[in-house]
Design goal:
Structural class: mainly alpha
Radius of gyration: 19 Å
Distance between the termini: 30 Å
Oligomer: single chain
Number of domains: 2
Strand content: under 5%
Number of strands: 0
Number of helices: 8
Order of helices and strands: HHHHHHHH
């Protein structure tokens, strides 16, 4: 059942991406409204995908790369929809939609069998740690998209050729503010994910820290985002510099995520 819902979700997200692309070229609000409604419908199918996998596996669906990508994209879309309720920045969906679609397409080509967890890893720390980690990553993904939008908008302003996306992207001030808020939410979540991961490691393997690749790269990512937030708070890092730094940090995060999962066969770092 989860595979059927996954295919439906991918198709709906593909349609959403096409409609968003049409809006970006035409700048007609009816396409933006249609894309938002279709995207929301896709999220419900996505939720059904995650729920069906969760029930079928009997655990948090994040024990394989297929499950992790599906879960990561679901949380990213969910947080985008929450931000949409407060800030009404619907055009952000034009960047979130293809990202979610890409993750689902990648997931669809990966092994889908349900991987049983080792008995030592089966604990309540699994859903806590995994959810915190992916929520943090999702906020960093949104910060990345907002940074890309900031750079695009800034280039239009510097060139003094006010055309195309300039008329539909938010102001530089709004983009920088939302980028900062996503970092403010993402960093504590990443911190809690590392802490709960260490506690889970102690519970499962008898040691808080084993210096395994996933733990090392999580720590590197933590230092990168800590440096970015410190720079914003103490050195006045704003605008383009913050957007570029958050973009580089996210590319390192996502690159290490794929590298570690592919090298470990998709299993969680504690299992290797």
């Amino acid at each position: 059942m989860s595979e059927l819902f996954l295919h439906i979700t991918a198709i709906v997200y593909l349609l959403t991406t096409v409609i968003y692309s049409t809006y970006l070229f035409s700048r007609k609000d009816r396409f933006l409204s249609a894309a938002q409604w279709v995207f929301t419908a896709g999220f419900f199918f996505h939720t059904a995908t995650v729920a069906a996998r969760w029930i079928g596996a009997g655990r948090t669906p994040a024990a394989s790369l297929h499950e992790s990508l599906t879960f990561f994209s679901w949380i990213t879309v969910a947080l985008y929809l929450l931000i949409l309720v407060k800030y009404r920045q619907r055009v952000l969906g034009a960047f979130v939609s293809p990202f979610a679609l890409l993750l689902l397409i990648t997931a669809s080509f990966l092994p889908r069998e349900i991987v049983p967890l080792a008995p030592a890893l089966a604990s309540y720390w699994l859903p806590v740690h995994v959810t915190l980690a992916f929520m943090g990553n999702a906020f960093f993904a949104l910060a990345f998209f907002l940074g890309v939008m900031y750079i695009i908008q800034e280039r239009y302003l510097k060139s003094r050729k006010l055309r195309g996306l300039y008329f539909i992207l938010p102001s530089l001030e709004m983009l920088d503010e939302l980028n900062y808020k996503c970092l403010q939410y993402g960093f504590p979540l990443l911190t809690l994910a590392i802490i709960t991961g260490a506690i889970w490691s102690e519970y499962a393997l008898g040691s808080y820290w084993l210096w395994r690749p996933r733990q090392i790269w999580s720590l590197i990512t933590w230092f990168l985002y800590a440096a970015l937030l410190h720079g914003r708070l103490t050195s006045g890092w704003r605008g383009r510099k913050a957007a570029m730094f958050s973009g580089a940090a996210f590319l390192i995060l996502i690159g290490s995520f794929f590298a570690i999962n592919l090298l470990s066969g998709g299993a969680h770092g504690l299992a290797k």
